[in-house]
Write a structure and sequence with these properties.
It contains 8 helices and 9 strands. It is of the alpha/beta class.
Amino acid sequence: MSDTPQSGPPAIARRGLLLVLSSPSGAGKTTLARELLKAETSLAMSVSVTTRKPRPGEVDGRDYIFCDQAAFERMRDDGSLLEWASVHGNLYGTPKGAVMDMLSDGTDVLFDIDWQGAQQLKEKAADDLVRVFILPPSASALEERLRKRAQDDPDVVARRLAAASAEISHWAEYEYVIVNADIKASLAGLRAILAAERQRRARQQGLADFVRSLQDGL
């Protein structure tokens, strides 16, 4: 047995995971996703393709891949999308190839999608999936956040409020739930979830080889 000290922990190959954040509009998941990406440099954002028109400040290819309905339907029909959904009259989907490549390379991928997309991911990649549902602290807080956003027409805000109850009804399908009353506390919770899920035995693909080498050295 060697007494030579090691300089740091060994590098063990790991498969990436799919971290899904879902919530009713206005609960803060987009802000949380942005802050999580800043804090976790090994986390990459899945860029969705959508038929929705860009909002002020959004950049094609960075925030979303914007396309018309015909182009979206071609991707959907030829199997190029890992998941897709119709949300508030617009189509959203996740390009499959780039995401699967990142998982194989050990990169974790963050998704800002609704419950419909999360269900499809569970059907196609259940072993890679970690789902977190974000709830607002109250109904009044949700309405206030939507109205303060000031990027949508009043009728769009009304539709989003009307849909919120149905969206919230899917909370029990998720492994984790965070009530987003405070961004800092919610972000800490998300980082704790991510840290724990990265250590799951099944995701550490190089673990068996490491354990064998460890035993051989004893």
